[in-house]
Design brief:
This protein has 418 residues and is of the alpha/beta class. It contains 12 helices and 16 strands. Strands 1, 2, 3, 4, 5, 14, 15 and 16 form an 8-stranded mixed beta sheet that branches. Strands 6-7-8-9-10-11-12-13 form an 8-stranded mixed beta sheet.
Length: 418
């Protein structure tokens, strides 16, 4: 009897697993802004975690699926009169690293004991149980880059994650997506006030060069030891190991830089070592438009909905995004959560539009542009067949403050319904 019961339980579990993976969700009659393929009045057919069709009528496809495969009960959402967008993406946050309503107990974004910590990875500090994750996907934000803070010159590795889940390992889209570095007031104030290095911008740049050069030598020695058995393998160094993806141009340096001169220093160092680079914050970007167009590094602008809390923010303005975009730059917008709560990302985009950015460019700045910058545009950032079913249904223009999210779908699952 025990063996028979065990077999029955196994059969039930297998059938449930199949049904979960093959679940079919249909979104009907909505107006879809695909971002990359224009605006369509179509149905969306989702199977499992992926978008499998975008057509005016998906009924024939549903019948074919039901006749050939085991599926859970079909779910249909009627989006008549509603607006459908891909889930929004924020390319620079600290989601889960500074937990809501906590002090030091929930602060895990800066290891302020050493200005050089490239070996740290935020996956080990993120708490997905923090309630701001729920607020994010209820606000239409389905993917983010979570990055270390900017206290250290080298802060560690950033990752791209979904905003829904209980276990961070299962929420990861890509790890790592970048290696965080920082210029200006943050590392100066963190270490300079304690009479440690760096106290100046010169020292910040020197520390970066020193450790990048060490990493180059380490990688060179590793290659020599692999090619020649008589050459000893260098002693393992976790810091230098973490910089190998940067040197191989697999991931960029993610540079915290507000001031124009700090952006130029970041560019100077990236060019010296032939590295990929993103310029994050870019607060004075509107003052150096021609130079940034010439260099053509990705720009992640923000947070603009904040106070001028330090000297290097004295030129903060919502006009930056529009000026750069109208000049021809494909930019990203960011909240720097928790500086601005993540659910207000579309409001920040709306304010950028108010101050001169074109609406379609602002939409791209929180969808396909950050997806491309993070190297995850094969999965998210637009509504296309084959991509992850990360879709948000709105009752109005998401840039207008009175508009509401009606449904948030992540990986084909309705995670929020208003």
């Amino acid at each position: 009897l025990d063996i028979k019961c065990l077999k029955i339980r196994l059969i039930i579990n297998i059938e449930n697993k199949i049904r979960l993976e093959d679940k079919v969700l249909v979104i009907k009659n909505g107006t879809i802004n695909t971002i990359t393929e224009g605006i369509k009045k179509s149905d969306i057919l989702i199977k499992g975690k992926k978008i499998i069709a975008i057509k005016e009528d998906v009924e024939p496809l549903i019948s074919e699926i039901e006749s050939n495969e085991v599926t859970e009960a079909l779910e249909v959402i009627d989006a008549e009169g509603k607006l459908i967008f891909p889930g929004f993406i924020d390319a620079h946050t600290h989601l889960g690293l500074w937990e809501d309503g906590m002090g030091m107990e929930g602060a895990d974004g800066n290891e302020e004991t050493d200005p050089i910590t490239p070996q740290l990875n935020v996956i080990d500090g993120i708490n997905p149980m923090d309630r701001t994750f729920k607020e994010a996907y209820q606000g239409g934000v389905t993917s983010v880059c979570t990055t270390p803070g900017s206290a250290n010159v080298m802060g560690g590795q950033a990752i791209a994650i979904k905003t829904f889940g209980k276990r961070i390992d299962k929420m990861v889209i890509k790890n790592p997506v970048a290696s965080k570095i920082a210029f200006g007031e943050n590392p100066k104030s963190c270490y300079g006030n304690e009479d440690n290095t760096p106290q100046t911008r010169m020292a910040i740049a020197a520390l970066l060069r020193e450790n990048l050069r060490k990493a180059e030598e380490y990688l060179h020695d590793l290659k020599d030891s692999e090619e020649d058995e008589e050459v000893d393998k260098p002693e393992y160094d976790i810091k230098l190991e973490a910089l190998i993806p940067v040197l191989k141009k697999e991931i960029p340096l993610k540079a915290h830089a507000h001031r124009a001169d700090d952006m130029f220093t970041a560019i100077r160092i990236a060019q010296e070592f032939d590295l990929k680079l993103t310029l994050d914050h870019c607060t004075e970007g509107h003052l150096i438009v021609d130079e940034l167009l010439e260099e053509n590094y990705p720009l992640i602008v923000g947070p603009s909905l904040s106070e001028r809390s330090k000297i290097e923010l004295r030129n903060l303005t919502f006009e930056t995004a529009g000026i750069l975009s109208n000049a021809g730059k494909d930019i990203c917008l960011m909240t720097d959560h928790p500086v601005i709560p993540l659910q207000y990302l579309p409001i920040c985009a709306g304010l950028a539009v108010k101050y001169g950015m074109k609406q379609e460019k602002a939409l791209e700045a929180i969808t396909i542009n950050p997806a491309k910058v993070l190297g995850i545009d094969d999965r998210v950032g637009s509504i296309e067949v084959g991509k992850d079913a990360d879709i948000v249904i709105w009752d109005g223009n998401p840039f207008e403050i009175q508009s509401n999210v009606l449904y948030t779908i992540i990986d084909g699952k309705v995670v929020y319904k208003r």
